[in-house]
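Reviewers of the previous submission asked for a worked example of the structure-prediction workflow described in the proposal, so we include one complete record here. The input consisted solely of the amino acid sequence. No template or homolog information was supplied to the procedure at any stage.
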Amino acid sequence: MGTLSFSLDDKYNAFLSHKKEIPFGDGPLSGIPVAIKDNISTLDMQTTCASQILKGYIPPYNAHVVDLLLASGAAIVGKTNMDEFAMGTTTETSAYTKTLNPRDITRVPGGSSGGSAAAVAGDLVPMALGSDTGGSIRCPASFCGIVGLKPSYGRVSRYGLIAYANSLEQIGPMAKSVTETAQLFSVIAGHDPRDASSITAPYEGALDPELKGKRIAVPEEFFGAGVHQGVSETVKTAIDTIASEGAEIIPCSIPSMRYALSAYYVICTSEAASNLGRFDGARYGKALDGKKSWHDAYQDHRMQYFGPEVRRRILLGTFSLAAGYYGRYYHKAQTARQMITKEYNHILSKADAIMGPTMPEIAFPFGAKNDPLTMYQTDILTVPANLAGVPALSVPCGEVDGMPVGLQIIGAHGDDEMVLNLGYGYEMVRS
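From that input alone, the workflow returned the following structure tokens.
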């Protein structure tokens, strides 16, 4: 066991300056504060998924990634706010409070990992863990001006992640630089036998900034209708910078993109309806009213303690899976998912990465999007990577109206090294 030793700014030494010696491990993150999204289980520390239905729930075990962080010497300093059960794009659906964007407190920080992004952007911690089901790491990274990685599906264990949509979600790192993001990723990546989707693919953490000779695919759909002109221009300037370093830019098209949002919301709500069926007040969280019949108590409990967005998605998913509608919705969504995956794999067999905006706009003011459909449309550029299971990185690339813009870098499944290297290379030449 070693004493506290920070490798980052001196301000983090002040974080625990009242203690003489702290028995952190001598691992790669020795003494570095890390915040954990509130849907990742932490032993003896409340984990609520920002929902009233889990208020007071204390897991009896750590998520695999939490054990890895502790073994690396990291100091887990607390849990971060999120959209309830990770269902949202703004962190406004949290049952407890909304999170403010450190760049402009009148604007949303993004979601659903908005608390983790804001903690990093606001200098509360140098690193944080989030989870990404349809952009929940990359969206707040873009809105708050930090780096966020959604790893390849299976690259990081989901054991201990309270499930929203199992086939889509991944735990991933968030930090202010690609170097720190890669450092955190090197700790949490690797095989876990308790997660059936886990693959054996540790990350060594060595970054290569070389951009010369890299082939970058740029889909026209990433710059189409609905993408803010300022965002498009900022991202195109970033891609031009990468091209000036010797990368080859390959214009392309992904026709199946038009199905991505619909397919995503059918699949994720269907999985959510199944996963959230366990929250019934009988085993943990808020208790059922024992004076009522089971049916009435169960109905009232879920109505009272699930927020409106969670209830909406459970109802949508239940409808999609209902007899008579399964083939019309869920089966078609899975067919569309296969098309999207096939097209992404085809492009990434000929290019090293796909690049475009992370989000179609900058962080917007609180309350600016009041109807669900308008809110869901903000996920159009991030959900395809989750459907295809491929890695995607958001790196700050400029500003519009004083707010950050993210460059999204998408790679082939298992090639998280490439997206991190390209992000690092861009970071090195960014003006």
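The chain has a mean pLDDT of 92. We consider this example representative of the routine output the project will generate in years two and three.
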